[in-house]
Amino acid sequence: MGGVHPHDSKFAKDCATEVLPLPKTMYVSMAQHLGAPAKPVVAVGDSVRTGQLIAEPGGFISAAVHSPCSGKVKAVAPYADLSGRMVTHVVIDVEGDEWADGIDTSDTLITALPEDRQFILDRIKACGVVGLGGATFPTHVKLNPAPGSPKAEALLVNGSECEPFLTSDYRLMLERPKEILVGAAIMQKVLGGPKCFICIEDNKPEAIKVMDKALQELGFADMVVQPLKKKYPQGGEKQLVDAVMHRQVGSGALPISVGAVVQNITTSFAVYEAVQKNKPLVSNILTVTGDCLPADRHHNYWFRIGMPLSYVAEYAGGVPAEAGKIISGGPMMGKAVVNLDAATVKGSSAVLYLKRETTKRWQEGACIRCGRCADACPMGLEPLLLNRLYKAGDRLEELEKYAAQDCIECGCCLYSCPAGIPLLDNVRQAKQQVMGVIKARAAAAKNK
Amino acid sequence: MAETYLITPNPHWHSPVSTKRLMLDVVIALCPAVIASILFYGWSELAILVVSVASCVLIEWAVTKFLLKKPSTIGDLSAVVTGILLGMNLPAGIPLWIVFIGALVAIGVAKMTFGGLGQNVFNPAITGRVFLLVSFPAQMTTWPEPHGFIPNVDAFSGATLLGQVRLIGADKADALVNLSTLFRNIGGSAGEVSALLLLVGWLYLCIRKVIKPWITLSIFATVAAIAAIFHGVNPEMYTGPLFNLLTGGIVLGACFMATDYVTSPINSWGGVLYGFGIGFIVMMIRYFGSYPEGMSFAILFMNMTVPLINMAFHQKVYGRK
């Protein structure tokens, strides 16, 4: 159903990951996950070590945050994130990279799985692991479905990386395949042993081969590498469930409602590090790439959370002169960077430079009802209809009937519109209005 | 950091396919049939096409500039497409001032009065053609014999095969049409000289995913099915499927006029119903009406039902029954 085929542009796919050195100062955000911001547990002047807890979860859906370096806390204050929104950050003067006690920082592979389910969940929670496929939903919550949820029948480990340009998942699969698979086996165990699918798009044959080989060597049961057709957004949670299990998740429901749990390949790696190494999530892979960089300037970096984007950009050779837009993430769902001094967060995946002429919005033309947006929509919506209803104003009932609330904001509609109509901008607004109505209705029903 | 970086919500990329590119593809798809019609009918046909396209573009430009006082929209090439289609829908040799009136109705009335591209209810080129058919019936049904590229003063006008059915009988008319008709001219509007080349162009549009094949296939299937039934019952009264498919603008209409985005349904199943409606009406007009042809009327009539069809047909939303 739906989907588009933008150019791959995986220019950095053959660039082995390099480790970024630490800058002088780190800015660690307290809001780098979905849900309530974390609560700082350190004060100005405190000495911290790498991996030490500096903020605890601020609610049920929240995650712990750890120090990415050793040094002294310089400030606990609001700073602008990449969209310019003010968020509390813990600022640390870097002195070195001395890890806290009890953390295994070696590269030795540990394949023996812990027996105790609660021990696993506690480690994942304590290490601040969140979903790294984009949503940054706390992983310990997702792996522990509410009582009464259907049994997990399939664990989909998502390595499809369908966004153009991004190569961080790909590099991780090539460089640390066994860690990913052990992480997947751990999650499988927590979920009560569903079948596990390692989902990789068929435009990454090398990754499929490497993961297949690693899987054979580890000899895990009930785990397969599942090649998928290349298509954007193949890696969307609902799209992946449909592609692998031929089941569709209902409106507003979670994948577990049809027996599925989806976790990103990088999350699987973070789970491995948390459970097997007691290593908190303080680093991840980030791709520096774009369509205005020469061939030798694409990079994949291991970064630590809290490094300013501007530091990463500078280290990678500076912002190219031709860049018209700087994006955090991919060209389809990434965010335009308002503040380049913003800090990297757990879910950072790329710094992307696009030329002005490839990224600028088109002059808006007339809708010719060609239906290309409806063909492209992976949720089966009709963006041209939703756009018209939204612009007409006060048509919330119809917007709900035609499922504006189900939009996943993947951008396929605007991407494919030959008239350059800002379909997603309007559908997003419509979605928010409809969500408001649905929430109000649910609240009213509860109060009865 | 300079102030010059763009800040817009996602997506940050756009497919290269623009309205202009889609229209250009339609122009490309029409080229083989257009070239054939010029080879068959010579200079006069070239003049008709040039006047038709130039008039359509000029009229759209003038309306946007002087009446609407808006930026010009001729760059999207939709007026060029209308111009070519109008020219192809006229008999070769029609006086050029009539062509201009056709363009005036097509663009000025059928398209711009409704608000321009995307707003019109009726297919502009067909509206222009039907206006001319009603206003200038004699000129619109004077079909010159193809006389090659060199003007031939001895060329005489003949009736189309469809027009001859009532004179010579359905069975005799049927006998004049077989599969080889695909490859040669059978008279009629200039653009219809080669059904095969029209189909080649249509195939190009389908392969390029500019249009979907369902509307066209639905029209063909409906026409063939209705003709098969009537012809099967009484071959002396009613012409057969092949005759009806290859005459009277069915191919041109089904491939390029009924598939116009703006005036056809969005949904594929809606398109099938729309195509069925066109095929049904055209056959009723041919068998029981007083016009020999009927494709233009059928498309115009079904244009009116498109808003209703669009309301009734929606694609399946993910996760819903």
What are the main properties of this structure?
heterodimer, A: 448 residues, alpha/beta, Rossmann fold, six-stranded mixed sheet, 14 helices, 17 strands, B: 321 residues, mainly alpha, two-stranded antiparallel ribbon, 1% strand, globular
Question: Can you give a write-up of this model?
Answer:
The complex is a heterodimer of chains A (448) and B (321). The longest helix of chain A has 25 residues, at 423-447. In chain A, the strands form four sheets. In chain A, strands 1-14-13-17-15-16 form a six-stranded mixed β-sheet, sandwiched between helices. In chain A, strands 2-8-7-4 form a four-stranded antiparallel β-sheet, with no helix packed on it. Chain A has helices at residues 117-126, 139-142, 168-175, 177-190, 205-218, 237-245, 265-277, 309-315, 356-359, 372-376, 383-392, 396-401, 412-416, 423-447; strands spanning 17-19, 25-29, 39-40, 47-48, 53-56, 65-66, 70-80, 86-96, 154-158, 195-201, 223-228, 260-264, 283-290, 299-304, 323-328, 335-336, 350-355. In chain A, 55% of the residues are buried. Chain A is built from 14 helices and 17 strands. The radius of gyration of chain A is 22 Å and the shape is globular. In chain A, strand 7 (70-80) and strand 8 form a beta hairpin. Chain B folds into two domains: 19-140, no CATH class; 161-189 and 208-312, no CATH class. Chain B is globular. Chain B is built from 14 helices and two strands. With 321 residues, chain B is mainly alpha-helical. Residues 150-157 of chain B have low confidence and may be disordered.
